[in-house]
Amino acid sequence: MDILGNISVYAVPIVFITILASGLSKGEKVFDVFLEGSKQGISTIIRIIPPLVGLMVAISVFRASGALDLIIYAVSPVMKFIGIPPEVLPLALLRPISGSASLAMTTDIIKAYGADSLIGRIASTMMGSTETTFYTLTIYFGAISIRDTGFTIIAALIADFVSVAASVWICTVLFA
Q1: Measuring CA to CA, which residue among 91, 88, 69, 67 is closest to residue 79?
Q2: Which stretch, 51-55, 103-107, 138-142, has highest mean pLDDT?
Q3: Angle at which helices 67-82 and 30-65 pack, to 10 degrees?
Q4: pTM of the entire structure?
Q5: What is the 3-state secondary structure (H, E, C) of the chain?
């Protein structure tokens, strides 16, 4: 463990010094390049803020409206038939939208059912194998000012569905 502790303490300074040394050895004006990168970073943040605020407002409205509860109620019978426990359905629906909401949901599931229960394991596996699709697309596409997402959202949601199904199947096969 001491080795990992030492690596973690010295990793950032070593990377920083390596970057500086590399730039200086090539004759670059390192500070000027740093300032230029900072300017680009600030302009990227300014481009990302509007879609990010819109996404956060949409998430809040979605959760407060009761639409999530209505969707869960409508889809639960089908999910039970397929074999997906209804207890993890809210997590499966929230995960593509919000990382913090899905983390809170996972915490609640683990508190209610236990970390070693089938439902707790499915929730944990689902949390690790799915992505906050809409948040990620908002950040990435907002950073490069792409408005037309094409088939990206469809492909990402299919990947999330496959991850949810695989989480349930693998945990059921291994732990049930």
Answers
A1: 88
A2: 103-107
A3: 80
A4: 0.67
A5: CHHHHHHHHHHHHHHHHHHHHHHHHCCCCHHHHHHHHHHHHHHHHHHHHHHHHHHHHHHHHHHHHCHHHHHHHHHHHHHHHHCCCHHHHHHHHHCCCCHHHHHHHHHHHHHHHCCCCHHHHHHHHHHHHCCCHHHHHHHHHHHCCCCCCCCHHHHHHHHHHHHHHHHHHHHHHHHC
